[in-house]
Amino acid sequence: MTAETVLRLTDVVKTFPGVRALDGVQLAVRAGEVHCLLGQNGAGKSTLIKVLAGVHRPDSGTVEWRGEPVTFANPQAAMRAGIATIYQELDLVEDLSVAENAFLGHEPRRFGFVQRGHMARRTRQIFGRLGHAEIPPNRMVRSLPAAAKQVVSMARALSHEARLIIMDEPSAVLAHDEVGNLFRIIRELTAQGIAVIYISHRLEEIREIGDRVTVLKDGRTTAANLSARETPTRDLVSRMTGRSIEYVFPDRPVEAAAGAELLRVDGLTRAGEFADVSLSVREGEIVGIAGLVGSGRSELLETIYGARRADGGTVTMGGKALRPGSVGAAVRAGLGMAPEERKSQALLLGEPIYRNVTLATFGRYARGGFTDTGKEQVEADRIADSLDLRPRDVRRSVRTLSGGNQQKVVVGRWLLGDTKLLLLDEPTRGVDVGARTELYQVIRALAAQGVGVLLVSSEVPEVLGLADRVLVMREGRVVRTAPATELDENTVLDLVMAGSLMEGAPA
Amino acid sequence: MSDVKDTSTAAPARGTDLPAQSPPVDPAETVLASEKAGGRLSWWHGEGGEGARRNLALIGVLVVLVIIGAATRSDLYSRPDWVWDNVLSILKLASVVGVVTVGMTFVMIGGGIDLSVGAIVALAGVWCTTVATQSYGAGGMIFSALTVGMAVGLVNGLLISYGRLVPFIATLAMLVAARGLAAEISDKQTQVSDNGFINGLASNNVLGIPLLVYILAAVVAAGWVLLNRTTFGRRTVAVGGNPEAARLAGIDVKRHTLLLYALSGLCCGIAAVMLTAQANSAQAAMANLYELDAIAAAIIGGTLLSGGRGTITGSLLGVIIFATITNLFAINGLTTEAQNMVKGGIIVAAVLIQQVQFRSLTQFLGRNRLTRTT
């Protein structure tokens, strides 16, 4: 059976200032197949989806859709052409009915009035095609479970007569038995000649539902049209790894850190996020947590820090238990955190650099409640010096800094106080290559001074290169703990992705 | 996707009032080419510059209003002492709303809004003029007004920070409830103040300036210091600018939010005493729509509704501009209806100007400077 190729991408390039997000992507999708896209975080999958969905336009290269070269001016154009995208965060209007969502933006109309009966009938028809005739078209979307919402998203795609449906990690929001149902729907769609681009980190799913696989790495296609069922895992993993840019990691100290135990986490649990996590960090030790987005690692870090309240378990710092759910207590105990989302979680973008650096410490420089901005600037300047901040003027707005320098500001914030343990969540996201190396050196230098570091990153080489000890997390549980030197990238990726959903995943 | 920012226009970002001093930087500093454009910034183009430029524009508006006043009523402006009298009447007009606006500015910079200020003024005014309270003398009256104002503010703060109500809803509810309570206490009657000291606050002058104006000056000065020179002010900007960042930096956002509404309530208590002094009485309907005047003044003064930015100086100028417009209409014998329409227009114009003009003006100035220095 050789169906026609409905979608063909040739040498597609898309750059953003400072980043080459897509650097020559090849992709060919046939009618009626499930084509899987594989790649690590940052490999360019999201950008590729957005190009196909009409959100971004490629800088060069061609996109052929049903034999014709096309460029979509906007998402509506892609939709009209028959390409529908189901994003991970479903873009449904919660307070509209199922039918209204399915036909959002192209409701059947007569004389300017929506034909509600007609719309409900057609929605029911589409649900029939999807094998979900039981979903009532008049129900509010808000009241539906996640799996049913996903079906509504698909109904919307079908209401547009989509010939290609892109699904971005559709299983991430589903429980195990619901995934089986999703696969059944996908099979029905493909049987009707609809092509599906399926994105997932879970190799088992790809094996079960996929026909062919295209692998992306650093914005390039490293392998195209592999058989989803027969290609060995090793091959798939090796195509995703082995980077073209090698980062330089600072040397580990010859002797492993033998400092006193700083942080101890026992049986920490938060329902639906992570369960029974125990770990410890010593003075001067860098502990890395490897795991995918959604594996519970960021939530774990925030819970240790007191920004979320644990359902069970304890966090002790230097032998003393931390008050749960209190960031203030954690900071006073010597914890500091550089959160995942720099701009929304860490920076006051309208404020000068120095006020961002002293955000956690300005109280210390104050006398009787009066701030001492002179002293703050001197201290911030010292930090700027030691981190090689560019530009150096700490009175400039933090907004004008590049991503890497903004990250230095956030890390630098905790160098001012007497931080004993630094929690770093994706410290190099959106940071260019040069600044990365600098940040790695800063982190290692901190450890050399006795600061403990707990590092989360979805980039496996980063965790392996920087950390002394590595915890691998999958679906809310620590599945392996080992010295970094005993692990390699393929092993960790295998562990991280060996995605059977059956191992007691938190719902 | 990308975090890389275009810094080539070197538009100095907004900031609060910063001391003017050249930064301690070696000019031969290694600066990336793309970042070079910003280089070092003079005070005018630097962090404090935008607030200063904005306030200068407000002063410009004020000058225009005064010129219109002088042109339409040249007789009033013919003698210096008459001009001075008119200036004083404008300031007196601005004093009560001005005090309320200082509190409002803090709440708004902190990311909230307080719709209940007018109602709190009325409740505090009525409370401090009951027969029972008046029996304690001026001290008792002032104490009860400030305490009631702050207590109601605390309730607002508790509902918002710990009860997780949206500020708009919580203070809207308080607006209704506090006026209701004021009507209940006063039995819908006007309560006359017999206290000579209180009434004298409005009628007495020191060095030719009404006492009310001194109170406004004191509150504004205290507010300015609190916002710009204390940790409380710094936390206010942080909590309003990025609550999550503030929380993750160890700032107790909830407690601070609570304090902001209490501060606003305290300002309302002060305003209640002033307004009672002006009218020699208090009643449940007093200070009607002050919330709108205060919010409007803060907004044209440059305070962001979304929080994180605002200045006391700007808010004061906003209040004075509105008072000048009221005065302008009064001396020309025009109706308050016409006046309200003009006020509405000014609010829209001020916000539009801030959105459009300042951006381009800032960029224009930034570019000019670059062509000179590079």
Automatic annotation (TrEMBL), chain A:
This is Monosaccharide ABC transporter ATP-binding protein, CUT2 family. SMART domains: AAA (SM00382). It is a peripheral membrane protein. One of its GO terms (cellular component) is plasma membrane. Its main location: membrane. The keyword Repeat applies. It comes from Micromonospora marina. It is found in: Cell membrane. The lineage of its organism: Bacteria, Bacillati, Actinomycetota, Actinomycetes, Micromonosporales. One of its GO terms (molecular function) is ATP binding. Keywords: ATP-binding, Cell membrane, Membrane, Nucleotide-binding, Repeat, Translocase, Transport. Residues 7-243, 257-500 form the ABC transporter domain. The keyword Cell membrane applies.
Automatic annotation (TrEMBL), chain B:
One of its GO terms (cellular component) is plasma membrane. The chain crosses the membrane at residues 56-73, 93-126, 138-159, 165-185, 206-227, 258-277, 312-331. InterPro entries: ABC_transp_permease. Residues 1-28 are annotated as: Disordered. It is a multi-pass membrane protein. GO terms for molecular function: transmembrane transporter activity. PANTHER family: ABC TRANSPORTER PERMEASE PROTEIN YPHD-RELATED-RELATED, RIBOSE IMPORT PERMEASE PROTEIN RBSC. This is Ribose transport system permease protein. It comes from Micromonospora marina.
